[in-house]
Design a protein that fits this description.
The chain is α+β, with helices and mostly antiparallel strands and about 675 residues long. The protein contains 22 helices and 22 strands. α3 runs parallel beside α6 and α14 runs parallel beside α20.
């Protein structure tokens, strides 16, 4: 493999351009590069007028690597280092590992792969139990000394946002990061200069690592606190676990946590006081000096602190951009930082900081749109804030207009305050802890309650919105709808390199099941067929995005309300609302959003798709209601609108969530096959 450093791209640029840059560096056609892998990525923000990402890539090429390397002074031929794990016969006495933090976890993983069947002793609980207990404690519950951010599966770092910085340059770092990625962490941690997983993902990763250890014969024993140890002939021979002695093999690594009391109890000799004075002072300095440095920084004059970071001059007095950076998407974060530090768009930065002045952002609730939704608080209350800029801001303003126009017709979210300015729109919504999305409500209450609420929602929309605003169908708008939402999105799928390759197969194997690929179902998208089908659609004002998550249910009573309408659908038919509802219940969209990884090989797409019995029951109820209300041809139209909703989703996923885009394409294919069976009168999920 040839490694090429110092390839530069602007924030937000498509990383597919790296292939052309690598080819230019080697002075070869881009077609001669047969493979490319990012090995390192870092942000260079030293010059405000030239902020860019710096990449190191590894490429495989056609031709003589030695000859090609001579054309680029900075390129080098590198052989990836491997980390071989020898296989051993299972020892008579199994190795014991104390603590299931990062070191203990990887020690157990390698011993398990070697065939040693290790036993892990961890004083805390598993990650799921920890998450629930920590959430309860942060909400005002009691502190559990054995179940907290310090102790338990994954160690203290599990709840410190999963940062993976280290000052060492050990060759095994790449192995560790690759293992994290193989067990569910995002692939970019293997090359980011400052890799970061995030607590939400890390909780799943550590559980996946534990599952492999157990699958290979190891054990992880939670709630097992080591309270003492004994030696024999200068070696640790046994330890005490919750009062019971446990014999050890002669190789034993004692792994420390971050609790000072545990340091004192487990240091050789049993007490910190017996350690050498230099060791005691070094340990004290390790913990105290960083705290002193942070405290001292707060005493510096504001002008000095500002000189250390000139970019703060763009912020209003007393504000810090670090507290006002809520974008969940990496691309959006990069664009914002580029604008902020480059000061290339002072009006944008000023509006952003003014809009969010005086609030604390608690959590990101953004989903599948370009608008950002955050749970926030100020000195008065907790609330949801939704905002967007540019074209997305204009679309959000249309959403706000819809909410105001329909507030007397429908149960809708309460708007506390709002503002519309040139290129920017935001509004705040009431937060109530008893109000939850229907996905959560459905899976924590009897299905009958959700079915009753959903029927009330559809009946209210029919009586209060669809019928009073009904108008004749517009043939011209139907034609534009087909051209834009069907043809336009199919064209984008065919133009995308990754999907074009997937679409070249006649069939796809999705999670082991064979489906007709989308090109084999092109009869479904025939213009004459769709034109005749949609001509019979009712037309009127609609919500436009009636997914399960946009129906909010109260847990303390049977009331509900709607959020997040979507305007600009061209063909404004209630059937689009029903299609959106089916995208949730039939297509399992919400479950896909919770699935972190997808694997693609040739015509196979594999991912862990969970589907609940509650979804099946609610889907059956909705299909029964639709079949009772409309003739079969109109139900077919509703199902085609569901397929089109999946088509409309794909360009967004390709732009914002490219690594998981094949999974959503698989969702489109599975839904299209089910709808095709319905249209042809075959037995299937919808019949």
């Amino acid at each position: 493999m040839i490694v090429i450093p110092n390839l530069k791209l602007a924030p937000g640029a498509d990383e597919a351009a790296l292939k052309a840059l690598a080819a230019k560096a080697l002075k070869i056609p881009a077609g001669d590069i047969t493979g490319l892998r990012i090995r390192k990525k870092s942000l260079d923000a030293r010059r405000k007028d030239d902020i860019h990402y710096v990449y190191t890539v590894g490429v495989t090429v056609r031709g003589d690597e030695q000859q090609l390397v001579r054309r680029c002074r900075t390129a080098a031929i590198v052989q990836d280092k491997t980390y071989p794990i020898p296989r051993i016969a299972p020892p008579q006495t199994r190795p014991v590992i104390v603590g299931f933090g990062p070191a203990g976890m990887f020690a157990a993983l390698l011993l398990a792969r070697a065939g040693a069947r290790p036993i892990v002793l961890e004083r805390g609980p598993d990650a799921r139990t920890r998450s629930a207990q920590i959430a309860a404690f942060r909400a005002g519950g009691a502190f559990d000394p054995e179940c907290n951010v310090q102790f338990g599966e994954g160690g203290a770092g599990t709840f410190s946002d999963g940062k993976l910085n280290t000052g060492t340059h050990d060759a095994r770092i790449g192995f560790v990061l690759a293992e994290f990625a193989a067990h569910g962490a995002p692939e970019h941690i293997t090359y980011d200069a400052k890799p970061h997983i995030g607590t939400d993902v890390l909780v799943e990763v550590v559980q996946n690592l534990r599952r492999e250890i157990i699958d290979r014969g190891g054990e992880v024993r939670f709630g097992h606190r080591v309270t003492g140890l004994s030696t024999e002939d200068g070696h640790i021979a046994a330890l005490t676990v919750a009062g019971e002695p446990m014999q050890l093999v002669d190789v034993f690594g004692l792994l420390f946590g971050r609790n000072a009391a545990d340091f004192a109890a487990l240091l050789p000799g049993g007490a910190l006081g017996t350690a050498a004075p230099a060791a005691r002072w070094l340990l004290l300095a390790w913990f105290v000096l960083p705290l002193l440095a942070m405290w001292a920084a707060t005493l510096l004059p504001e002008g000095v602190r500002g000189a250390m970071n000139q970019a703060t001059q763009a912020a209003p007095a007393g504000e810090s951009y670090l507290n006002l950076l809520p974008q969940a998407d990496e691309h959006d974060r990069a664009v914002f930082l580029s604008r902020y530090f480059g000061l290339e768009n002072k009006d944008y930065v000023k509006r952003f900081l003014q809009m969010n002045r005086g609030i604390t952002i608690l959590e990101d609730y953004s989903a599948g749109s370009n608008a950002t939704t955050m749970l926030c608080m100020d000195t008065q209350s907790t609330f949801y804030r939704k905002y967007a800029f540019g074209k997305d801001g204009a679309k959000l303003a249309e959403q706000l207009d819809w909410l105001r126009a329909q507030q007397d017709r429908l149960p809708l979210c309460d708007i506390l305050r709002s503002e519309e300015a040139d290129g920017c729109c935001w509004y705040d919504m009431v937060y109530n802890p008893q109000a939850v999305g229907m996905f959560r409500y459905l899976h924590s209450n009897p299905v009958e309650k959700s079915r009753a609420i959903l029927r009330a929602v559809l009946a209210t929309l029919e009586d209060k919105l669809y019928k009073p605003t009904a108008v004749p169908a517009d043939a011209e708008k139907i034609e534009k709808y087909i051209e834009t939402k069907v043809d336009g999105n199919l064209k984008k799928l065919h133009e995308d390199r990754m999907l074009r390759e997937l679409m070249s197969y006649d069939t796809l194997r999705i999670n082991g099941v064979e489906y007709k690929n989308l090109p084999a179902l092109d009869w479904m998208f025939d213009h004459d067929r769709l034109r005749n089908l949609f001509a019979k659609d009712p037309v009127g004002t609609i919500h436009g995005d009636l997914t399960i998550e946009n129906i909010i249910c109260r847990t303390d009573n049977d009331s509900w309300y709607l959020i997040d309408p979507n305007t600009g659908n061209l063909h404004e038919s209630p059937f689009l609302d029903y299609g959106k509802l089916l995208q949730s219940l039939h297509g399992s969209y919400e479950f896909m959003m919770k699935t972190p990884r997808v694997a693609v090989q040739d015509n196979r797409i594999d991912f862990q798709l969970t589907r609940s019995a509650a979804y099946d029951a609610l889907l059956a109820a909705v299909m029964e209601d639709l079949s009772a209300r409309y003739p079969r041809e109109q139900v077919e139209s509703i199902l085609m609108h569901e397929v089109i909703h999946w088509l409309r989703l794909m360009p967004y996923k390709l732009a914002k969530d490219r690594k998981r885009a094949p999974m959503f394409y698989a969702g489109l294919v599975m839904v299209a096959n089910d709808v095709a069976d319905f249209c042809e009168g075959k037995e299937g999920k919808l019949c």
